[in-house]
Design brief:
The chain is globular. It has 8 helices and 12 strands. It has 2 domains: 141 residues, Jelly Rolls, CATH 2.60.120.10; 78 residues, Winged helix-like DNA-binding domain superfamily/Winged helix DNA-binding domain (Arc Repressor Mutant, subunit A). Strand 11 and strand 12 form a beta hairpin. The chain is of the alpha+beta class. A 4-stranded antiparallel β-sheet has the order 1-8-3-6. It is 42% helix and 25% strand. Helix 1 packs across helix 2.
């Protein structure tokens, strides 16, 4: 990819919003842009952690697999997010896998160059530390919720804490881009598809939300926020 195109992309990437042209140029010269198809793997669990990734387009799911092959979906990343931060782990091996949920385009930087960049721009160290801390806190909270909250509570919490921040207001309604299937929501809440469908159907009957395959319409935000 031409350097000016990469610079445009980096200017629209929140993590790099405050960099100088010289610092952006360093990133451009030390990254490779790649595109992969749906269900293709960016990296495997236990593979060497020798690079970091900046997602430009598409969605990437981060999953952990048990020795028996059971998948625990950790998160689904949107454009503008960084992943592969496990290069900072002392073991130097991935603890999870990154797989394309749909066709995805991302920049790849070697771990050695990322470490140079963090030394070059000390402000990024704080941003990076906060990013890792935030992801660990979210994962810890999910694990606690599995043992402390019911399926319904976890699904409602997903709507309020994960989906609502992405909503756009149209008149009196909030509209959420419904880009996750009930199966995916079930994985993210450690429930099951039937339970997700049941909760959504109940909310629809109560006039709190309406939904189809493309959008979730929040018709009564106040009641939704009061539900537990």
């Amino acid at each position: 990819m031409k350097e000016h195109s990469k610079i445009w992309y980096l200017e629209n990437f929140n993590f790099f919003s405050e960099l100088t042209d010289k610092q952006r140029s360093f990133i451009c010269k030390n990254t490779v842009m790649k595109t992969i198809g749906k269900d293709e793997t960016v990296y495997f669990q236990s593979s060497p952690a020798n690079s970091v990734y900046f997602l430009k387009k598409g969605k990437i799911k981060i999953s952990h697999f048990s020795p028996e092959g059971k998948e625990f979906l950790i998160s689904i990343l949107e454009p503008g997010e960084i992943f592969g931060e496990s290069f900072l782990n002392p073991s130097n091996f991935r603890k999870d896998a990154a797989i394309a949920e749909e066709e995805a385009t991302f920049c790849v930087m070697s771990s050695s160059n990322m470490k140079k960049l963090l030394l070059m721009v000390p402000e990024l160290n704080l941003k990076f530390a906060r990013l890792i801390e935030s992801r660990l806190e979210k994962l810890q909270k999910r694990l606690e919720d599995v043992s402390l909250k019911s399926n319904r509570e976890r699904i409602l919490e997903f709507l309020k804490e994960s989906a609502l921040p992405m909503a756009e207001r149209f008149g009196k309604e909030l509209i959420i881009n419904n880009n996750l299937t009930h199966d995916k929501i079930a994985q993210l809440t450690s429930t099951n598809r039937q339970e997700v469908s049941s909760v959504f159907s109940s909310l629809k009957k109560e006039g709190i939300i309406d939904y189809d395959r493309k959008e979730i319409h929040v018709k009564d935000l106040e009641r939704l926020l009061q539900l537990t």
